[in-house]
Amino acid sequence: MRLLPLFPLNLVAFPGEKLNLHIFEPRYRQLVRDCLGEGLTFGIPPFLDNAVQELGTEMRLLSIEKTHPGGEMDIRTEAIRVFRVEKFFRQAPGKLYAAGQVEDVVQDEEADPALREVITRQVRQLYEALGLRKLLLQLDPKFRIFDVAHHIGLSTEQEYQLLGTTAEQERQELVREHLERLLPAVLEAERLKERVKQNGHFKHLLPPQF
């Protein structure tokens, strides 16, 4: 176990994700200065249901992009790994910010190639229906579930459930089932939009032959 500075937020960060943050509270400005000066990392445990959750994502500070006149900062960070909070402290020793005794969560990253093919088709179908051409072009053939998890219509609670898995194949199953439920509703909504657009237009229709 090790002591990790914590920055609870009402979001879920996934390993490999780049996250830009605007830092304005004095305690987290202190956290950023410590990360910069001492080479520390920090953790983002999601704040859900009015509570700091036990799972979180360790973040590395990449850069301070801008420091505002009032001391606020715009920073770039990268998510490294998932951890579990064993003991939470509202303040780290001698600091303004929170901390926790944490343990790393070991991940099995082996994907099921057949499942990946199914999910790839589902994701492409979703992005095409929603007109998300940019995301479609960025889709890596060897993507991990964490790479697309923010762009497939999961709620924050579902994203946290995904963060709690320890195997890529388990994540694949969760996402396949989610997209199986989601896609029919999305496609029907898109068909409805097309029907609404056509209302009031002159239509060239062939009458039935009888």
Automatic annotation (TrEMBL):
SMART domains to which the protein is assigned, alphabetical: LON
Gene3D superfamilies: LON domain-like
Stretches assigned to the Lon N-terminal domain: 1-183
Entry-linked InterPro entries: Lon_prtase_N (IPR003111), Lon_prtase_N_sf (IPR046336), PUA-like_sf (IPR015947)
Source superkingdom: Bacteria
PROSITE patterns reported for this sequence: LON_N (PS51787)
One family name in Pfam for this protein: LON_substr_bdg
Protein name from the UniProt record: LON peptidase substrate-binding domain-containing protein
Organism of origin: Hymenobacter ginsengisoli
